[in-house]
Each structure stands twice: as structure tokens, then as C-alpha cells.
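Model: Ready when you are.
Researcher: Fold this.
Model:
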Amino acid sequence: MKDNNKLNKLTYALFVVYLIALFWILLFKLGVHFSYMENERSINLIPFSEPVVLNGKIDRGEMIMNVLIFVPLGIYAGILFRTWIAWKKILLFFSISLIIEGFQFILAVGAFDITDIINNTSGGIIGLMIYLGIEKVFKNSVKAQKFVITIATIGTASMILFLFLLKTNKLWITYQ
């Protein structure tokens, strides 16, 4: 029981680091001002319409990134909110995405886009399904949690190291 408590604390700590990184990446764009950030506020309520079209083609890369960045949220929700019913977890994914999109509009760092909300929520659902699959493979939620946390710890440490090296210009790519 004591080991499980430590594991849960580590899981919550990694979850908080993930949420901070998520908001920093999506709201503050890693502290970089990209050319498309023109401090204009816009709202797109038509799914998969103009904002995802780039040079006449659908920008699949942005859509895929919006899905992928929310996959860890689904995995963490599978571990940390085990007793919640599926709809409550999906509502969590939707709510966090809605909050981020709302802040992007308020801070004028991106458009409020329903397509992003759909893709982000889908990423959370995919992450939840991945966790449920891992749990099924291990046939034990504690073993599944240990596996995920091992990978999450390595991934989080790597991300922090990468961002530190990027910020201090120690990499082959530059950060402005």
C-alpha cells in the first residue's frame, strides 16, 4: 500500500508537469512568436474548415499534432481517475481543450477552433484506449501504472532536458 501511494504521488507529479507543458506549448508557443501569431482574435465553429486548410490543402500535420499532444492526458486519466465513468473522462478532455482554446482567443495567441477541440478530445480518448490496452496486457493496474510511469518519467526528463538545451542554445537548432 505504501508503494502504491508513492506511485500515485509520482503519477500526479508527472501529470502536473504534463499539464504545465501542455499549457505552455499551446498557449505560449514555447515563448516563441511565430509569424502566424498576428494578435488577431478569430473563432471557427465549423469543424474541419478554413483554419485547417493551408495553401488549398488540409493541414494534416497540425491536426495530427493536436491529437498526439492530448494522448498523454488520456493515459494519465486512465490511471488517476480510474473510478470515473468514460463520459466523465471524455468531458475532462473536452473541458481542458475548451479552456485552452478559450485562452488562445483571450490572449490572442491563436484562434478558437472547434476542429482543435475535436482533435484534442480525440487524442485524449486515444490515450485512454492505449492505457486500457496496456492494463489488459499487464492484467494488473498497478503493473500497468508502473510501466506507464517508467516511460513517462523518461519522457518527461528527456523533454525537460531538450527544452533546457533548446532555451540555452546548446542544440543544433536555435530557439528565439
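Researcher: Now this one.
Model:
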Amino acid sequence: MRKMSLDGLARELLDRAQGGPGRAAETVFGGHEQVLRQTVIALTSGTSLGEHESPGEATLQVLSGRVRLTAGDDSWHARTGDLLLIPPTRHALVADEDAVVLLSVVKTRSA
């Protein structure tokens, strides 16, 4: 069993993002060899993760701040405590204010 403080990691990553390129991330569970991957991502206000494909089923939990998820003509706003179900289409994420999110992805296995 392994335990960690997501609040502490969120603060650390946001400090790194503010002192650098506007974003910082750390995978807290999973990896290339596993199906489930969870990554904490910090974004400074106005920073985005440009449009990209979804690697599988995914959710985004906002740990702090406010973000906007867009997919085509649709967009969803979320704030601390909200959980977004990421559509299985190309999408992007923008921080409307300094934000930290927990991205959980179950990668689709190829046949």
C-alpha cells in the first residue's frame, strides 16, 4: 500500500508551473505497462493542453482552480471538486485560472 497527499503534490506542481513553462505534471499511478494511469497536472491561468486525441476512457477531477474542456463546438467549465467525463474525441484543456487536475485514463488496448 502506498499513500500520498494529492493536496501537497498539487501545491508543489503549481509552484513548479508558476516558476517555469506554465505547466507541470507527475504520474501518480500507472505507466506504459499498466492499463490505468493517473496524472496530476498543474496549469497556470491561460495555459492550455492543445487539442489531442483521447487515449482511452478518461475523467478529469479538478483539485483546485477552474478549467475549460473543449471538444469541437462543445465546451464544459469545471471548478474545484468537479469531475468531467472526457469525450472519446479530440479535445483540449485550458486553465481559466491557476488550476490542478487529476487525469485518470484507462488506455484502450489494441486487438
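Researcher: Key takeaway?
Model: The CA atoms of residues 17 and 79 lie 19 Å apart.
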